[in-house]
Write a structure and sequence with these properties.
The protein has 387 residues and is of the alpha/beta class. 53% of the residues lie in helices and 10% in strands. A hairpin with a 2-residue loop joins strand 8 (280-282) and strand 9. Zinc ion binds at residues 136, 138, 207, 211, 240-241.
Length: 387
């Protein structure tokens, strides 16, 4: 409540300054014999721009964005009509033209505050549910997929290291925990980052040993290497490129869950429309498929966040979270590297699009939105323990 009064006070100060500018311009234009309405409108428009920035930074302590500018201009369009009607009403009632604007501004300011409060503080609809955020922390080998000669360790690790650092910074900033599916290759070549992942409370799961050439024996080998390196048990597995994996072997090696399934139809990549959308048990190993939207099974994995408009991605995520009670998705460190600056890697547009700093902003926006609605971020192991 106290914050509400403070924001009202700040609103009054900004509003009074804007009104003073408005009235000053109006008064000066009257002195040079401008028509009353024209003088009033000119004053209104000039104080409008300054008011927007002051309202964003000062009244509601948030960054000015185009979206907010549209909301602000929208609320002002109505407000403007209100001003003109009131002005002419008061003049018609015989109120002096130097007094009428002051009355108009007083009444309009109260109406405007109510509208603006809705624009900036529209209460987000709460969602009860768990969010499973994961990062396939592997040596960057995507150029190999596009016919480029590439050494994932010698050349790719720098990209992976950069991206992993960005991801950890983002999670730290938001104060949440996630799950890192690491390849043994990555772990052995970036022990300092593995230490940070563990130190900051994230879960380490296995993403095999060699991302480019997975072998059946990597299921056990990666677990052994990761556990030795982190000093913590590894409970989960995700096969490189989400390829199929022998569930019996996972069970024998003591894995509690498998997150190697994307139950979407992505031509040339995944064809799993016959698989369940949500978690299920197979041979006593919990299967946690990547989330797709209900009914149409629109994939909500990393490529979707690159290429959908942010509002669409967020709205599909919220819908899926409400429908399923949980939401599970995955990204890669290299998405947070400015891939667009390297045409020699021959990456398609859909991978380069928004890669680098924009992905950081997008990921953060998704996290902050879900946090503000009360969703709970958990690791895969925490989730598995409740099933
Ligand atoms: Zn991978």
């Amino acid at each position: 409540m106290r914050e509400k009064y403070r924001s009202f006070l700040r609103f009054c100060i900004v509003g009074c300054c804007a009104a003073a500018v408005h009235y000053g311009i109006y008064y000066m234009l009257l002195l040079v014999s401008a028509p009353v309405n024209a003088a009033y409108i000119a004053g209104y428009l000039i104080s409008f721009i300054g008011n927007f920035f002051a309202t964003s930074y000062f009244t509601f302590s948030s960054r000015p964005t185009w979206g907010r500018f549209v909301g602000f201009a929208g609320s002002h369009a109505l407000n403007f009509v209100l001003h003109i009607i009131l002005l002419n009403l008061f003049l018609w009632l015989g109120i002096h033209r130097l007094i009428a604007p002051i009355l108009v501004m007083g009444v309009a300011m109260l109406v405007q505050y109510a509208v603006l409060y809705l624009v900036y503080h529209f209460p987000a609809r709460a969602i009860e549910g768990k969010v499973l955020l994961s990062f396939d922390t592997e040596e960057y080998d995507v150029p190999l997929e596009h016919g480029v000669e590439w050494d994932p360790i010698a050349q790719g690790m720098e990209v992976s290291r950069f991206g992993t650092t960005r991801i950890l910074d983002c999670l730290k900033e938001c104060g949440i925990h996630a799950t890192f599916f690491c390849t043994a290759n990555f772990a052995q070549n970036a022990p300092e980052l593995m230490a940070r992942i563990v130190r900051e409370g994230h879960e380490v799961a296995s993403h095999g040993c060699d991302h480019w050439q997975p072998k059946p024996e990597h299921v056990i080998e990666s677990k052994r290497i990761l556990e030795q390196l982190t000093g913590q048990p590894v409970y989960g597995y995700r096969q490189p490129r989400m390829f199929p994996v022998d569930i019996q072997e996972l069970k024998q090696q003591g894995y509690a869950y498998n997150a190697s399934l994307n139950p979407a139809f992505i031509p040339g990549r995944y064809m799993h429309l016959d698989m369940p959308r949500t978690w299920f048990y197979k041979q006593e190993v919990l299967q946690i498929p990547a989330s797709v939207s209900p009914w149409l099974r629109i994939p909500l994995f990393w490529l979707a966040l690159h290429n959908f408009p942010l509002w669409l991605y967020q709205s599909l995520v919220r819908r899926t979270l409400r429908h399923d009670g949980y939401f599970n998705t995955y990204f890669h460190p290299w998405e947070f590297y400015p891939l667009g600056e390297h045409p020699e890697w021959k990456l398609p547009f859909i991978i380069r699009h928004h890669a680098g700093a924009p992905m950081y902003e997008r990921l953060k926006a998704v996290i902050v939105d879900l946090q503000s609605r009360g969703a709970e971020f958990v690791t895969y192991h925490e989730f598995a323990q409740t099933k």
